[in-house]
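Input.
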Amino acid sequence: MALCTHRSEGFGPVSHRYGHILTSCFLDVILVPLCTWLYLLATIVCFALHRYSRANRTRKSLERQDGDNYKAFADVNIATRPSLWRPWKNGGKTYIASLILYYLLIIAQFLMCILEIVRLSLASLGIGLLPFTFVALVVAGFLRTTSGLRGKVMIWRWLNLGLWICLAATNSVKIAQEVKEGIDSRKGSKYPVVDELTDVSVMVGVYAVLAFIETALKA
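Output.
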């Protein structure tokens, strides 16, 4: 599947037909996937920083304690560590309801992304790098479920929040460019601009709600 095909405005960042707008190809290949790339990079960096910081603390602890005492301390620490897979234990009914809604919205966003990709494919327009969004959704859901592997990914909640805001913002740019292009564009095709505009608008709304819930949920 080509990144972009049969898109009259061209491949570059600025449309050949409409000099005042960005091309849909640039949005689908660069701008929207950029959120995922930055999110994954930041997640890896935060995980690495935690590992480095923990290694330094462990080395200093070993220097201060003899091996037996340190081992006993580590065993107790591991034994009392909370489960990675039970985030609902952290709150009451409101928390559980918010968490369920959070996961349902991620599933809904999965379905909306699939819908957009399938319709772009059926219209022979190319799907760009939009499938990268699936990776971001999976990682964000995993970090929420495991509380960032119980803190091994530093500031994971802020990373998730940044992801939702970034995706909402970039898709909003996509909406703005489609409005400038004209809602009657690609009329009669298998994926008219007006239909894509509706789909992307729903996705922006879901990302906005995810960002709101992310700020409301505790670890």
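Residues 28-216 form one domain.
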